[in-house]
Design brief:
alpha+beta, 4-stranded antiparallel sheet, 7 strands
Length: about 120
């Protein structure tokens, strides 16, 4: 919950914490009641920042485990009002890969993420 509050303090999202996976000492993948968030720690700003996020309604497919067994992949639509997409106003798809430290973490994240997506 503390990590979520640090990551989202500049976004003002009213999300509730659900699960997180620590990818490295400076990156984490967070699942909330409304979205998935990839965040990284910024040494210069001494704070967590959102690299990318998707609300569950924008995730097109259920996550798949990579053949290496140490990551998941999924496809989601980009927010047309964020980043470079706002100039084109389209709903481009983006493939996302989340690499995890081991197969146990991968299976856990895959199960929890799939459960969250099916709940929406």
């Amino acid at each position: 919950k503390y990590l979520l509050s640090q990551v989202t303090r500049h976004t003002h999202w009213p999300d509730l914490y659900y699960h997180h996976s620590l990818l490295t000492t400076k990156s984490t993948f967070i699942l909330t009641d409304q979205r998935c968030i990839m965040s990284e720690y910024d040494d210069v700003m001494n704070s967590w920042k959102v690299e990318w996020s998707h609300v569950y309604q924008d995730v097109e497919s259920l996550p798949c485990v990579l053949s290496s067994g140490t990551g998941i992949t999924f496809t989601a639509y980009m927010d047309p009002n964020a980043g470079f997409s706002k100039f084109f106003k389209n709903r481009r798809k983006k493939s996302r890969i989340v690499t995890l430290p081991n197969e146990t973490e991968t299976q856990l994240l895959h199960t929890v993420f799939t459960k969250r997506l099916r709940a929406h």
